[in-house]
Amino acid sequence: MSLSALVSGIQKEIGLFLILGIVVWEAVSPVSAYAAKSAVIFVYHRFGEAAYPATDVRIDQFEAQIAELKSGDYAVLSVPEILHAIAEGQELPDRVVGLTIDDAFRTAYTKAWPRLKSAGVPFTLFVTTDAIDHGYSGYMTWDEIRELAANGVTIGAHSASHMHMAEASEAAIAADIARSNRRFKEELGSVPELFAYPYGEVSLAARRQVDAAGYRFAFGQFSSVVHAGSDFLDLPRYTVNERYGALPEFRRRARALPLLVTNVTPEDALIAGENPPPVAFTLEPGLSGIDALACFTDQGPVSMEQVGDARLKLRLDRPLPPGASYLNCTLPGPEDRWRWFGKPFYVPKR
To answer: Is residue 21 part of a domain?
Structure first.
C-alpha cells in the first residue's frame, strides 16, 4: 500500500471515529436527551395592571422577558407547534419556549399583543366566553379576538363562566364547556383544540369532561416542563406575575428541564379524603445526584423517604388548605439547569 493510500485510510478512520463519537455523545448527552422532546410553557394574565399583582406582570418586566426570549438562546414556537411535535415524537431544538395568556383581559390586546407582534413572538390566548359576551369591563371584545386570530394568534378555550371545575359536578362542567364551544363556533367558526382549566384547577372528573368535549390538549397552572411523557390533558405552565417576573427567575424557568417521574400518587388532584394526602412517585432509572432533590409545597419544605432505588414517599406535615396548592420538586441538572416536577392539589372549600 502506498503512503498516500495509508494516510487516506487513516484519515477516513479518524473521521469515522469522530462522527461516531459525536453521535454517541449526543445520544448520551444529559441535556439533549431531556431537551429534544420537552418545552417550557409560560402563562400570563394581565399586563401593566398594578392593582392585581398576583396576576399582573409589569411592562418593564415583560419587555425584559421578550428581549431575553429574542436573545438567540431560545426557540420560541407557537404552542400548537410545540404540542404536536412532542405528541408525535418529533425532536425539538434545545430551550423551546411557548407563551400563553389566560382570560382575554383587555391589556392582553392593548399592551401585550403590540409588543409580541413587533418582536415576532407567537402566543396562545385562552378566552372565557361569558366575560366577552357580557361585555365586562377590562375584557376584550369578539371583534378584537377575531383580529388576533386573523393575525396568527392561536385561540384556546378557557370555559364559559371561569368556574371552579375541581369541585363542580360533571354535569355542570359539561354544560359549561358546551356553552363555551357553542359561542366559539358562532363567533369564530370553529371550536379550539386547546383548553386551559380556569384557575388551573383540575380533577379527574374535570379531565374526563374536557376529554369528552374533544379537546386534544389542556393546561393547568402548575410549575413543570412539558415532555413526551406528560398527560396531554393536564399540562404544566409556569405562571408569570410581578412576584415571578424578575429576569433571573424567568431565565431559570425558561431553561428548565423535566424531572421524569412515574406512578405518581395520588392520581387525582382533588383531595376529598385523607389530608394531608400520601404522596409518592418513582424517579427515572439511573438518575444521578438525587440526594440534591428538594421538594416543597406552598407551606414549606417536604421531607422524603426513599423506598427502593427510585421510589420516593413524601411526608406533608400539615393538611393542605382549602383551594389550590402545589408541590414542586427540583434537582440541579447539567449546565446549571434545573430539572423540575410539579403536581397540583385542590381541597374543596365547602
So the answer is: no
